[in-house]
Amino acid sequence: MRSRNGKPDICLFVIVMILVIFGLAVLYSSSAYNGQVRFDDPAYYFKKQLFATLLGLFAMAGIASMDYHALARFAVPGYLLSLALSGAVLLFGDAYNGSRRWLSIGPLSFQPAEYAKPAVILLLAAAVCKMSKVKNGLKMAAVMGMVLPIVGLVGTNNLSTAVIILGIAVVMIFISNPRYLPFLWIILSGTGFLAIFLSLEQYRLERLAIWRNPELYEKGYQTMQGLYAIGSGGLFGVGLGNSMQKLGFVPEAQNDMIFSIICEEMGLVGALLLILLFILLLWRFMIIATQAPDLFGSLIAAGILGHIAIQVILNIAVVTNTIPNTGITLPFISYGGTSVLFLLAEMGLALSVSRWRR
């Protein structure tokens, strides 16, 4: 049953816009030094992020105005496209900082792994609806098996994104399944798989050693400088634009470690306010999921909730050295045109679902 006015969730829209504007401001502050040194333009990263953000806002508006039920027919083709793009990265992808994650089309480049996240959300939502509710182990295994190909392709050169995609699948299946015991086997199997996967490459084991004692390793430099930035921020920070650690001490400060610059410039209070914004965002997803008129809409909102929650938690955990360092961006804040584009497209999906209420 459609709501009386059919309007999208205004509260969600406002929170997203605050995060986008805040992200652009913090990105300019954290990237100005690198932009000046590398490209003789302090606004270099800001302008690229602004362009991707504008594209994302257009995508968000377009998707929000659609009937989300019509997207179910594109779930399988969209997922197959993500498999093709992820496979193309392994064959023709561009490498940056030793990681092959980008595809180039003319002057533009993008990360197919970011597109895989909304593609998996749509696929699983449509698949679970076709199976009614996932009630037994075989159906659960079948649904989980659908995402393993993309997890394997992405995980070849981007383990952190593969973990996020797998986490999204677990969240969505958990919500659709009334039983808890099968998830014990999923957790045990996932832990075993992760242990084997980590042991296959020496550099992954090295990351564990660096995580335990970052001060003893040259590669622990970024982690240590990030922690220095967090500690020097104090309660209220040194002021926006006044960070010292972004001046070459924290490598690529505008990327995965941007939360440490936020802590330095805005202090504990600023960091907590940002975390509060993310909590409010997740709360709106939960409201949308519970008010959706059907299982398909609920699972879309729940999948987006799982994606944002997992990525925020992992990014902050990496920056604070709670878990080993790996490349995970902070949603809406870290530099990354592909990331912000598809994040805003996901927000459009959530807004589309919010136009329909029970």
Automatic annotation (TrEMBL):
Is-annotated flag, keyword Transcription regulation? no
User: Which cell locations does it reside in?
Assistant: Membrane
The protein's matches in InterPro entries, at most eight in alphabetical order, are given as: FtsW/RodA (IPR001182)
Q: Which top EC class is given?
A: transferase
How is it placed in the membrane, per its record? Multi-pass membrane protein
GO cellular component terms? cell division site; plasma membrane
Regions crossing the membrane: 12-30, 50-71, 78-96, 146-174, 180-200, 221-238, 258-283, 295-320, 332-353
Q: Its catalytic activity?
A: [GlcNAc-(1->4)-Mur2Ac(oyl-L-Ala-gamma-D-Glu-L-Lys-D-Ala-D-Ala)](n)-di-trans,octa-cis-undecaprenyl diphosphate + beta-D-GlcNAc-(1->4)-Mur2Ac(oyl-L-Ala-gamma-D-Glu-L-Lys-D-Ala-D-Ala)-di-trans,octa-cis-undecaprenyl diphosphate = [GlcNAc-(1->4)-Mur2Ac(oyl-L-Ala-gamma-D-Glu-L-Lys-D-Ala-D-Ala)](n+1)-di-trans,octa-cis-undecaprenyl diphosphate + di-trans,octa-cis-undecaprenyl diphosphate + H(+)
A single GO molecular-function term is: peptidoglycan glycosyltransferase activity
What are the protein's UniProt keywords? Answer: Cell cycle, Cell division, Cell shape, Glycosyltransferase, Membrane, Peptidoglycan synthesis, Transferase, Transmembrane, Transmembrane helix
Primary location:
membrane
Task: Tell me any Pfam family this protein matches.
Answer: FTSW_RODA_SPOVE
> Which GO terms of type biological process are on file?
cell division; peptidoglycan biosynthetic process; regulation of cell shape
Q: What EC number(s) does its UniProt record assign?
A: 2.4.99.28
- What role does it play? Peptidoglycan polymerase that is essential for cell division.
Similarity-based family: Belongs to the SEDS family. FtsW subfamily.
The protein's name is Probable peptidoglycan glycosyltransferase FtsW
This chain's source organism reads Candidatus Choladousia intestinavium
Q: What is the lineage of its organism?
A: Bacteria, Bacillati, Bacillota, Clostridia, Lachnospirales
